[in-house]
């Protein structure tokens, strides 16, 4: 029972006690008003208590920025890298379930737009997709012309076959054509 429901219950009991005292000491019209007021108070707080019980668990308290903090160890962003491994741009992964990587041509909308990257010519309009499933992120090639590769922690580069998702980990580098994206 939540604190709010306990308070509602105690206030309903108080209203019931006031109603009983007013009822047993009815000698004047004033006591009728007290009894009715106490009964009304009891009814209101009983309704609130029942309604609060049906609302389900309370949502987690969110920080001032409006986003809850991601769980420790989860992947939170994808970063566009230049040749010197410096971050040029980044996109947030937290709170999303899927993101399309490609070039925004006006007719299509991609979540990670690489149209202004140095090697944009090697990126298809819809090149790859990131999917969040069962607590992990996966990348999948969407039959792109220049392919998708993943450089894992062992520093080896793995070329993906279209339609076969690859599990991502922190520090992995995606090669979308010749464009490099780091997973953080």
Automatic annotation (TrEMBL):
This protein's UniProt keywords: Membrane, Transmembrane, Transmembrane helix
Cited Pfam families: FHA
CDD domains membership: FHA
Domain FHA as annotated: residue spans: 99-151
Source species, domain of life: Bacteria
Transmembrane parts of this sequence: 7-26, 32-50
Species of provenance: Flavonifractor plautii 1_3_50AFAA
Protein name: FHA domain-containing protein
């Amino acid at each position: 029972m939540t604190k709010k429901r306990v308070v509602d219950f105690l206030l309903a009991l108080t209203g019931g006690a006031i109603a009983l005292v007013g009822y047993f000491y009815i000698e004047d019209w004033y006591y009728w008003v007290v009894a009715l007021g106490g009964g009304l108070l009891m009814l209101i707080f009983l309704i609130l208590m029942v309604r609060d019980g049906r609302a389900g668990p309370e949502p987690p308290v969110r920080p001032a920025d409006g986003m809850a903090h991601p769980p420790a160890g989860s992947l939170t962003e994808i970063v566009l890298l230049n040749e010197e491994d410096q971050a040029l741009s980044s996109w947030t992964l937290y709170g999303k379930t899927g993101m399309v990587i490609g070039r925004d041509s006006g007719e299509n909308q991609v979540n990670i737009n690489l149209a202004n990257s140095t090697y944009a010519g090697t990126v298809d309009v819809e090149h790859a997709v990131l999917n969040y499933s069962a607590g992990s992120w996966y990348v999948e090639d969407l039959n792109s012309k220049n392919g998708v590769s993943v450089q894992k922690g062992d520093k080896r580069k793995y070329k993906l076959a279209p339609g076969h998702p690859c599990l991502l980990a922190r520090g992995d580098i995606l090669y979308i054509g010749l464009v490099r994206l780091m997973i953080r």
